[in-house]
Predict the 3D structure of the following.
Amino acid sequence: MSFGSFIRRLLGTIPLILGISVVLFSIIHLAPGSPLDFYADNPNVTREALEQMRVAFGLDKPVPEQYVRWLWAFLNGNWGISFRTGQPVLEVILERLPATLILSGSAFLLSLAIAIPIGVLAATRRYSKLDTFFTFVSFSGISIPVFWVGLMAQLVFAIWLGWLPAGGFQTVGNGSFMDVLTHMVMPVCILSFATIAGWSRYVRASLIDVIGQDYIRTARAKGQTPRKVIWRHAVRNALLPIVTVVALDIVQIVSGAVITETIFSWPGIGRLFVESMDGRDYPVLMGLMMISSFTMVAANFAADMLYAVIDPRVRLA
Amino acid sequence: MLRDRTLLLRRQFLQGIGAAAFAAGFIGPQAVFAQAIGKRGGTLTIAVPYEVDTLNTFSTGFLADIQSVVVEGLIAPDEDAKYFPVLATEVPTVENGGVKLSADGKRMDITFKLRPNVTWSDGAPFTSEDVKFTWMALKDPKFIAESKEGVTEIDAIETPDPLTAVIRFNTVTPIWPSGFFSRGILPKHALEGKDLNTDGYNTKPLGTGPFVITEFKRGQYVVADRNPRYWRKDKDGTQLPYLDRMVFNLVPDASAMVTRIRAGEILLAYNIPYGQAQALSSSMEIIKNPILSWQRLDFNFKGPAAFRDLKVRQAFAHAINKDAIAKALSGFPFVVNSPVSKQFDYHDPNVRTYAFDPAKAKALLDEAGYVVGSDGVRAKGADKMAYRITVQAGNSADETAQQVVMANLKAVGIALSPDNKTGVAFREARYKGLYDLLYSRWITSADPQYSKFYGTEGSNNGTGFSSPKLDALLDTAEHTIDRAKLKEIFKEIQAFLADEVVTIPTTSNVSLIAKSAKLKNFVPNPTNRTIFNNTAAWYLEG
């Protein structure tokens, strides 16, 4: 891969992100309802007060003009002021981002660490009892709704056994590493469960595909140990498609897990998104979605680049 | 999840400023504080069923729950919805000279005597200048406040001395106590010249109340610690509040809230879903707090032509089984026939009722010319009785009631299909009349200004109903302070609403509170001034 093609691809993401921002902005503003409905619900808010708010929020301007104003401010680092809380948007998001990074990030790493070995074991012992067991568990993880697993875990570990807190990020006034860790156990495990289930299936399928290839037979014929054949030759090649799958899931680390965060009262981005959606808090919504889009584009870009690094046959035009 | 919180207005209602009303309704501070002597100490953990937006009592879109432990008004409503003095020494009335009508009867002055030796929690003295400042701050068009009503009805506030505030109204209105001065007073010394939309006050408000906000973690909790400078003492002279600390956990999800209560992490929670009360009753006391709210079926008068036919509306009223709705909601609500809540003295218990009578409903529909077709659905020519019925999606109580209403109407040959909407889309539908039939609830709390719901220009009138006769009645009611006269007018209003079947009120609503038996001196509050307006006397036992 040449440096030139790298730069070309990188520049290509700029119009992509701009395009995404236009689409997002339009969808948000075309959706029924407006931020003022939050207040319009209240008979005590006079029409004059509503009109004052409309002007203060800049909602009296045409949508394209609002977009240009928003984009210009955004590019200058001013993400706007939250309609609901009156705080700068970046501050609102940064307050919530750490909790989501910790939760989703840990779940991401845990999933990666568990899904790959499970997938490999299942593929190498195809149709064995172990494989059947993993298949059963994986399909359970994929099929059982996260909220149900979450509620059951709370029932057992928080209510019956009393080992873990039922929810929240920290004990009031504590917030030490161990304290947060205790609060993390359940949400991280539950969030990982579904991810592990999905990813391990990909790893298994991909590895089975690779094991059937001629070069694996060649490696075996050369007298390599089975372990070496699997880990050096098969797994490395089988992981190629996994990179794409995993890269697409990276965005969850910043976009948050709405359901898990809700069940466990976790103060993350997922819940912030729902709150902002309910209140049609346009500036916060745009900020959140721009971060997600940017991460998505970046992860895809990275996956493409990584692909070229891992597999010399892939050439970037 | 209760997404409807913004509906809970923050104004409390008033039983009137007429002589009779206050003679009967006035409760002095002695009565309110005549509660058990408690003991100091302890942390109360509370579940707040929504995500707090701002702690500024004037800009939050929710009820001022947490704000109420920090910010105090001059007067406040008690558990019987009667006003008692807080930062004022007495509630102004005509008798005590606090309320003075002008000679022409067109305007009035209200004089508040302020409590001496009250300080803000930072030590600065509380004076009449703060009262005036609050009004000025709210009046400023640049301040984006959730509620500014009542502010324009005031021409001036005079402060002859630090403990006297004279409020000069430019009109006569029976609802004056719900003005800003009962919602909270802002500290002039801390906020003068600041931008109230973005000031730090919104996360750490400064008040005169029993508690001080010491920590606000968004999405997690708000911690309120004892205000050591609080002005109130109990009968034994012990400095209030009793509690050391209140922790408000923000738990917008109902099932998460129930889990955390059952895990023992929460000692007080409110807005418990009806269906969850049973599960909690083994570990918590369940308190039914009757709120000023009712459920009803509304017609879109600008929609299907049939709805403009009185016989059709009467048929709807006879077809609906209100008892079944109440039962379906675990029996917590009771059946109502008037939108005027029972708590108000002008509620008319003898208003016309429409008994559950499917046969009569069928007969009325026949009379109106709607006959049953081959598919079992009635029609008059091409006008088929098939309508959409909208409720707030996700509101399980309303969705349950919707099922009952649909079954009831199907039985008389009217086909309803659900068209449920969430969040702002629902609100928009409700306000703009984007429905055929709407099943929903109003929570007034306010000194009910029913013109908002039924007046031609009413801001909440999405039904398109318009009657000059009703408009005139409502207008008279809203400018009358004579209690007896007001009752007469409200009798007429309720008769009109029932006779014309403008709306079909079905049941009341209660707010379920789950509280630990350890929490003492807790009193529910039916007004929108929330259960947190007398936290100073709460204490924990054991």
Notes: The longest strand of chain B covers residues 285-299. Chain B touches chain A through 54 residues (CB under 8 Å). The longest helix of chain B spans residues 483-499.
